[in-house]
Amino acid sequence: MSFSSPASLLEVESRPDRPPVLRVEPPADPAAWASAYREAVRAQVTEHGALVVRGLALGEPERVRAVFTALAGEPMAEREAFAPRQSYGGGLYSSTAWPDNQPMCMHHELSYAQRVPSLMLFACLAAPDRGGATAVADAEEVLRALPAALTERFEREGWLLTRSYNDEIGASLAESFGTEDRETVENYCRAHAIEFEWRDDGSLRTRQRRSAVVRHPVTGRRCWFNQIAFLNEWTLAPEVREYLVDEYGADGLPFNTRYGDGSPIGEDVVGTLNAVYEEHTRREPWQAGDLLLVDNIRTAHSREPFTGERQVLVAMAEPRLLADGAPTPEGTRR
């Protein structure tokens, strides 16, 4: 089996408002193609932070899994999920369940965990009629563009994620921790610097403090790496926020973010974060069969509202423990 010259992989289409796109002739065996060109494709991701590969005809989960594995090895299992996903086995998942008409703003996957994927892989089995792009933004550029006083505070204090688990909104205990066993959940929390508290109704509330700025493990450059805006109450649509506050109370939201010292983050700050993200957003509409690779530490990603059928599969790969990514809270409590 032969393929075109690896030099062709360097000739990606690049535009300021879009991630680079590599077009290939449909190979008879996409996984074999991915194995042959793994180093060249990964070099493009290292250079650009993200890469769309178009032409692989990734139309079924088994083919997607084989290509993902060829490019990045065995995927990691997701823990601490904030919303449900369908599992296809072996670390292959559906995209996060989220209302079609609501955006998922820019974020870095599992940036609130201690063990984070350094690479995200996406494959489009069915493209939406309108919208639905998995857009990207360079975290180094976002950090430089944000107000210095704001980033200095977050860099000094970190950011705090609070979660209240229930059976109605967000991921359940089993979906987030892989179990409902209290002792197993508690052991996980202790091992991952997560404060936890069981409420009188049997529900779980957690707090974890993480760094907002980290150095890229390969380049050493500083990146704005967090989910401060995405998981904050002020990013929710007003009617959704109002419903959740009425239903669960201001301190019982399924998830929310705060400054590292526990102070609330104002609506104006969240607006600034999302505005800077939008200024640096690059988007390429999905086409069925597309592959997207994202350096999860250097590059944030989002999901835009859409209409029609949209089926995107996801894998997380190459987990890393970031030396500056997980400040230890002063103590954990039961």
The count of helical stretches stands at 9
Radius of gyration: 20 Å
Distance from first to last alpha carbon: 59 Å
Largest sheet: 8 strands, mixed
| Helix and strand pattern | EEHHEHEEEEEEHHEHHEEEEHEHEEEEE
What is the helix fraction of residues, given as a range?
25-40%
**Poorly predicted spans:** 1-8, 328-334
Tell me the number of strands. Answer: 20
Structural class of the secondary elements?
A: alpha+beta
Question: What value does the average pLDDT take?
Answer: 91
Strand content: 25-35%
- The spatial strand order of the largest sheet comes to 1-2-3-17-7-20-5-4
Shape: globular
Ordered list of secondary-structure elements with their pairings:
Elements: E1 13-15, E2 18-23, H1 30-36, H2 38-48, E3 50-54, H3 61-72, E4 87-89, E5 92-94, E6 104-107, E7 115-126, E8 130-131, E9 136-138, H4 139-145, H5 148-157, E10 159-164, H6 173-177, H7 182-191, E11 195-198, E12 204-210, E13 213-215, E14 222-224, H8 238-248, E15 255-259, H9 267-279, E16 281-282, E17 291-295, E18 299-303, E19 306-307, E20 311-321
Parallel strand pairs: 2-3
Antiparallel strand pairs: 1-2, 3-17, 4-5, 5-20, 6-18, 7-17, 7-20, 8-19, 9-16, 9-18, 10-12, 10-15, 11-12, 13-14
Cofactor: Fe(2+)
Protein name: TauD/TfdA family dioxygenase
Domain TauD/TfdA-like: 28-315
